[in-house]
Amino acid sequence: QKEVEQNSGPLSVPEGAIASLNCTYSDRVSQSFFWYRQYSGKSPELIMSIYSNGDKEDGRFTAQLNKASQYVSLLIRDSQPSDSATYLCAVNFNAGNNRKLIWGLGTSLAVNP
Amino acid sequence: NAGVMQNPRHLVRRRGQEARLRCSPMKGHSHVYWYRQLPEEGLKFMVYLQKENIIDESGMPKERFSAEFPKEGPSILRIQQVVRGDSAAYFCASSATGGHTEAFFGQGTRLTVV
User: Fold this and answer.
1) Do B108 and A103 touch (CB under 8 A)?
2) Is the peptide bond before B25 cis (omega within 30 degrees of 0)?
3) Which residue is closest to B97 within chain A, CA to CA?
4) What is the pLDDT of residues B1-52, one digit of tens each?
């Protein structure tokens, strides 16, 4: 059973702190990993994509990928109240002739002023 | 630089009616994905289409639901004889290349069945 797992939270951090969001996946051959942010009542918004082991930084966001341990994480530095949202992890699995994007249920983040 | 456009944003249908949801992908994107999301639940993949072809419909209910992406015009998700359980947010996403690579979402259509 291919799946993506995230802690549902809520994860609560004070403003200015580092928020750490984790995601584990079951398929060793997955190659593409994505983090989306979804505000309540809105559509998912792509934040980061990562394809290689290691870190990838974009502004206050850093994605970390460890294929050997099958996890991908998202760090948000200097967290702001506007970062309060649900963060969705998506992993690209191979499924026969098609690749399929499997989604976690999301982690709810609350940044407290 | 229009993103993914979905319409209508809100749709109310009575039980037994048909719902038609439209999605125009981003310019240059030929791959379209439809998802359904219930309140407090995750995104559920429904169908993946490329122009004139259904690539993967493994997430779509076998009855009452259909999707198309014609050569010209938007992708359409059709739900026939709607029931209350169809009430949800339906999101469309598009990507430039296939295989569920970086995909960008529209604002969604919120379907309410009364």
Assistant:
1) no
2) no
3) A99
4) 579 999 999 999 999 999 999 999 999 999 999 999 987 778 899 999 998 8
A71-108, pLDDT tens digit by residue?
A: 999 999 999 999 999 999 999 876 665 667 889 999 99
Does residue A29 contact residue B94 with C-beta atoms inside 8 Å?
Answer: no
Distance to chain B for A113, nearest Cα, Å = 25
pLDDT in tens, B51-110: 889 999 999 999 999 999 999 999 999 999 999 999 999 999 999 887 667 899 999 999
Is A33 touching B (CB cutoff 8 A)? Answer: no
Q: Which residue of A has its CA nearest to B42?
A: A105
Q: What's chain A's length in residues?
A: 113
* Long-range contact pairs involving B85-90 (C-beta distance under 8 Å, separation at least 24): B85/B113, B86/B19, B86/B111, B86/B113, B87/B111, B87/B112, B87/B113, B88/B36, B88/B37, B88/B38, B89/B36, B89/B37, B89/B38, B90/B6, B90/B21, B90/B34, B90/B35, B90/B36, B90/B37
Given the DSSP bridges, would you call strands A11-14 and A107-112 parallel, antiparallel or unpaired? Answer: parallel
Give the DSSP letter string of A54-75.
EEEEETTEEEEEETTTTEEEEE
